[in-house]
């Protein structure tokens, strides 16, 4: 059920990418404005409200916070289809961000409560399949509905579907009983207490900014790749959705699972591998992504994107698991939310806009190929992420909080 809700989380988050072209045509929006809609409009409240909502979940009921969040973001997704201009859809995207703020960090904590340390990275990888599956479903469903009806109907359909699963989720997912206070120490760590613990841990900062750097490029590519395929490869909306959907389903699924398996296997011997596994994946992904972006052949681009798309998702299991091992169990949701605050505010909030703004700035020089060049220049962000993740490895050895069996 957590995976199903996360799939809808990313359907509602990423559907804007496949619908960018018809929305821009209908509402007369620039690339920079679309970058704001895909990034900052969503990320500003998604990132900041995630922290207090996670703290609330740690103190009260994680399942209730997730359920309420699902209802909120689904309603605002449906409202995106009613927009008549930039500010209408901007405000609706703010609402989607408010709702989704309470979904991920509490879900990480629920999984942390149910799985032991040596299996947690793989369990979180299973949950993280919601990213490629939800993104793929968003582009496939959004592309189909937009091509057969219109883009407004696509928002309405996915929003209403999310509302339908909310009651089933709350019925199935229950909070685990909390241990007695004598057995677990402080029952509800405050936000300030958790923040002070993490502020002293270098691994937290390196992992957070490494993930943020990679997310700037990852979200940017995910959002703008449909537009690139339509502008530079001359694909129509339906064929673009098939291309993106297949790359996400095949490459994304393999990468997410591979990261969790490698981290659990290698991390038993050396906790540093929770940082080193993503670092190696980013390094290998850069030249492959560059080749895929540069080619003019659709079949070759598809093959070239599959492997780096997998490598781009390897970090999810290792890093989200490592963050939970930097604090005691009662603080897991809050720690995850503080990590997501940095990752999403920088990565999601800045990446999509940065690529769109860079494309707009490069248009006088490169014309219709400006978006392609913008993506190529941005690949340096994966090299920055690789360096930060590699540096985090040794600190994870010293700052890891082992669980009491």
From TrEMBL:
Q: Pfam families in the record, alphabetically?
A: MFS_1
CDD domains attached to this UniProt entry: MFS_spinster_like
Its record classes its membrane topology as: Multi-pass membrane protein
Q: What top-level branch of life does the organism fall under?
A: Bacteria
Key words of the record: Membrane, Transmembrane, Transmembrane helix, Transport
Q: Does the keyword Phosphoprotein apply?
A: no
- Residue ranges of the TM segments: 36-57, 64-84, 90-111, 123-147, 153-173, 203-222, 242-261, 273-294, 300-323, 335-355, 375-396
Q: Which Gene3D superfamilies match?
A: MFS general substrate transporter like domains
Spell out the InterPro entries in the cross-references.
MFS, MFS_dom, MFS_spinster-like, MFS_trans_sf
Where, subcellularly, is it found? Membrane
- Domain Major facilitator superfamily (MFS) profile as annotated: residue spans: 1-397
This chain belongs to which protein, by name?
MFS transporter
State the organism of origin: Novosphingobium mangrovi
């Amino acid at each position: 059920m957590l995976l199903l809700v996360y799939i809808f989380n990313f359907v509602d988050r990423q559907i804007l990418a496949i619908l960018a072209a018809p929305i821009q045509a209908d509402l007369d929006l620039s690339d920079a404005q679309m970058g704001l809609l895909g990034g900052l409009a969503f990320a500003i409240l998604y990132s900041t409200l995630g922290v207090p909502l996670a703290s609330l979940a740690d103190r009260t009921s994680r399942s209730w916070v997730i359920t309420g969040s699902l209802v909120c973001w689904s309603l605002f997704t449906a409202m995106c289809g009613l927009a008549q201009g930039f500010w209408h859809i901007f405000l609706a995207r703010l609402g989607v961000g408010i709702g989704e703020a309470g979904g991920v960090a509490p879900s990480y904590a629920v999984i942390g409560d149910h799985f032991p340390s040596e299996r947690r990275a793989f369990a979180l990888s299973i949950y993280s399949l919601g990213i490629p599956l939800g993104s793929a479903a968003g582009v496939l469903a959004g592309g189909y509905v937009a091509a057969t009806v219109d883009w407004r109907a696509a928002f309405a359909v996915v929003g209403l579907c999310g509302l339908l699963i909310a009651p089933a989720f709350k019925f199935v997912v229950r909070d685990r009983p909390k241990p007695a206070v004598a057995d677990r120490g402080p029952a509800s760590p405050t936000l300030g207490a958790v923040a002070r613990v993490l502020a002293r841990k270098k691994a937290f900062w390196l992992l957070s900014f490494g993930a943020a750097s990679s997310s700037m490029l990852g979200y940017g590519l995910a959002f703008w790749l449909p537009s690139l395929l339509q502008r530079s490869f001359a694909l129509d909306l339906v064929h673009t959705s098939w291309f993106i959907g297949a790359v996400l389903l095949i490459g994304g699924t393999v990468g997410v699972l591979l990261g969790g398996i490698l981290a659990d296997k290698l991390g038993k011997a050396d906790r540093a591998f929770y940082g080193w596994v993503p670092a190696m994946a980013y390094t290998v992904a850069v030249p492959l992504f560059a080749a895929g972006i540069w080619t003019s052949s659709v079949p070759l681009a598809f093959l070239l994107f599959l492997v780096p798309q997998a490598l781009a998702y390897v970090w999810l299991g290792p890093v989200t698991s490592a963050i939970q091992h930097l604090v005691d169990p009662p603080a897991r949701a809050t720690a995850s939310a503080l990590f997501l605050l940095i990752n999403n505010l920088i990565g999601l909030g800045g990446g999509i806009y940065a690529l769109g703004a860079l494309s707009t700035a490069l248009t006088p020089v490169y014309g219709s190929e400006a978006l392609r060049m913008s993506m190529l220049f941005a690949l340096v962000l994966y090299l920055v992420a690789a360096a930060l993740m590699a540096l985090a490895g040794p600190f994870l050895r010293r700052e890891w909080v082992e669980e009491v069996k």
